[in-house]
Amino acid sequence: MKERIIEIIHKYHADKTRLMDIMLDIQDECQYIPEECLDILSKELVLSIADIEQTISFYHFFSQKPRGKYQVYINQSAVAYMMGQSDIIEAFEDELGITLGSVTEDGAIGIFGTADIGMNDQEPAILINKRVFTQMTPYRVRQLIDDMKAGKDVKDMAVKAPGSGKNSDPLIDAMVHSNIFRIGPLLANDYKPFDYLKDNLSKIKAESIVEELKKSNLRGRGGAGFPTGLKWDFCRKSSGHDKYVICNADEGEPGTFKDRVILTEMPELVFEGMAIAGYTIDAHYGILYLRYEYKYLETYLNDLLNRMREEHLLGENIAGISGFNFDIRIQFGAGAYVCGEESALIESMLGKRGEPRDKPPFPVEQGYLDQPTAVNNVETFAAVVKILTKGADWFKKLGTADSAGTKVLSISGDCQFPGIYEVEWGITIQDMLDMVGAKKTQAVQVGGPSGTLIGPEDFQRSICYTDLSTGGSMIIFNRDRNLLKDVVRNFMEFFIDESCGSCSTCRIMPAVMLDKLDKILHGKGVKQDIRDLEEWGTVLKASRCGLGQTAGNPIVMSIKNFRHLYNQLLNRDELKYNGFNLEEAIQESCQVVGREPVIDHGHLKNGRERPECKANGTHKPECPDLSGHKDFEHRATNL
Amino acid sequence: MSKLIKFNIDGQECMAEEGRYIVDAAKDNGVYIPTLCNIPGLKPKGSCRMCTVKVNGRLMTSCTTPVSDGMEIENHIEEIENYRKMIVELMFVSGNHFCPSCEKSGSCDLQALAYRYQMMVPRFPYTFSQKDVDGSSPLIIKDQNRCIMCKRCIRAIIDNEGRSFFTFKNRGIKLEVIMDKEMGQRMNEAEAEKAMEICPVGAILKKEKGYDVPIGQRKFDMKPIGSEIEN
Hints:
heterodimer, A: Glutaredoxin, Rossmann fold, 6 domains, 5-stranded mixed beta sheet, B: alpha+beta, Ubiquitin-like (UB roll), 2 domains, 3-stranded antiparallel beta sheet, 7 helices
């Protein structure tokens, strides 16, 4: 095995900044990262073993323990549960006789939870060895397990249906649906791939591209909304011996999946946009940072890049423009939401923990390898090509005065037709709900968990940068949903799992807030608890990045817009509430130590006489045997 | 010498060289901004968030933000001071800090800041988290119970080949600082001494050394934190 590992390391020129690729390859080879690899990596890359473990332990798709020949990752998003993920988990657990987060005794099958995998419009969905299985049912689970036990390749498993759109392309061959329900100017098929690059780019100066983009008012489509023309202008004017173009396809915000669809249906548009960016800022390298969940697109996208090279649309003197050299590679992540933040994404591309950087300096000044770097969202690159083809004036006529153009929305949850809708900015929430066939809507999560949760009184508000801004995630909840228990709680757990942990605020506060929410959900909350949550959440604003600053939003926004749901749960008899019950409070420790305490009420609660307490510790356990009890074992291992 | 610029903190006119970090520029002007993760001379990290100030109305960490001409900085205002107190309290509840039995008592930055912010008891519930003590190195003890993840040791204790003795492991609430097993074995006296010294709390202690200075006569027993800067 040693030779193979060294081979992998040298495939990446023993470059420690390529640690992510090296470990992804090792994991493909060994199914996990074995102990003996660390020594080899440490020597070959001149890194301490702890340094390597620091990167491994940051990403949840990396593992230092075997996770099975078949690694089943079950989506934990709120929408997955709404569509029946609990039944899927139960089916796996029952059939395999193991619990989520473990591997069968023979080491064949492991089942694990994972954050949103970008399939909210076709849940419940799971991943098995990088292959996506959507619209699961317990019946299908049993079929899959039979196939896994028979040792079949994931591609040959019984649960197989052709995906729609280009998902049925042999190079993708995935049972994924593109579900495009509304096409606008961006997704319209009025575009001939690479025409602009081939015919027009040589006729326009870089400055003019920047001017055109500035004039168009195009703003970043990932969520932050920074003006694209300005970003490229900064990057163009920054000095560095190399410059980089990065396409952010980490798409980790629960509820968004539009980048997956754009990269499936029109990747040419994205790569063309990246090449134009390269020309504009004078970069020679472009990198598509693609989330690990979309690894099934790897062959398909690499095939396109190869065809582009053959047609001289990548490489040297592209499109006959002398000195315009540009190439693109794909960098995979390994499961970390925070890497969607542009500076964390850059850290990740350097083989490190995906920890956001302090700004300034901004990536346009010092980004990848400390060189000026333009990081843009998938949809932004696509929009650039359409703007340059049709003109800034055409683009500005779409949308509203402050939000020009269109937005590709990923709509999921309780509606008739979950999927992709391209709309002009300015559409109201109510129109959107009518468009997708949502009835009896209780709430809409705009912009994913880091965004805002709104109720019917806000449904006349519009989707645009100055009102309800969004990177594209729209999740709809009808009146039957328990918002606090099934949605807010799920989102808080998501932020706790996904925090990088660097800032004290984001590392600790969301967990403290979740404890308080649980207190309220258990019917033990009082009015002060709500006031506390509102006050405590404010400190998160002092965090470094967007994740930290918004990590309390699920609770803060739901208190703001759904206060009545909290009030309903409060202990009504606040004045009489005697917050503490000794016998209840010691239940848990009683179970752990296997002894019942002596409470001096003269007799025990079951009415028996109090037994003599023996000082020598030979007191017999009086609690029932709980060693097989799930909750007990969970707590016991935490001790 | 680079250009001198003017800025103000809480209305007080200040001057500094352009490009100096706010926290240092403030210090030169007699204004104390509390820090935990910052160490002069090392690239700042902004991980504890204690030094957060408002710059032209926006929250920024003063250890990572350079001053510029005409900058308006708010430091000693209720909102900011409340955040700082909350951060100190969060650190207390997330770890297991028992000051009376800690070797660092009296020279611990976290304890000193808790006094400065008059923390009686944290407003947040304790998490009673289970954490490990690593005594595998012949020279030091690393106690995760007291660690506040400031990253000082990670950044400062580096071997000749640029490798860190300490690194982070995991993420989020499970984040911890670990010591490289093999490097911990061959750590030298000077590195061990420095590791203990730069740790702002009692998470890294040198073995066979303790209570050289009696409690009651230690750094912050004599002068409260910040008093060397504030007039």
